[in-house]
Amino acid sequence: MITLTEAATERVQRFLANRGKGVGLRLGVKTTGCSGMAYTLEFVDQLEDTDTVFDANGVKVVLDPKSLVYLDGTELDYTREGLNEGFKFSNPNEKARCGCGESFTV
Fold this sequence. Notes:
Blueprint: E1 3-4, H1 6-19, E2 24-32, E3 36-44, E4 52-56, E5 59-63, H2 65-71, E6 75-81, E7 84-90, E8 96-97, E9 104-105
């Protein structure tokens, strides 16, 4: 299961409304960085047959089968800290992060 905080839900809904189209938000992982994996986030305009879809506060969160293994149980938040703002992943499967915070390992 994937969950979104209220702040993340509002931000995604605002992005989708501004785009004027989109089914939901795709979360995923890719191989990169010093620790091995990095999170990906993109808008979904069309679902694939192999996608798993979660309803998180009225937002469709879409994952491919490979990413679901690594992201199951993750909560997505949207935070602002000073001049920095963005989505923050809280993943219970994460074992370590690299020093720069761009990649992680499970």
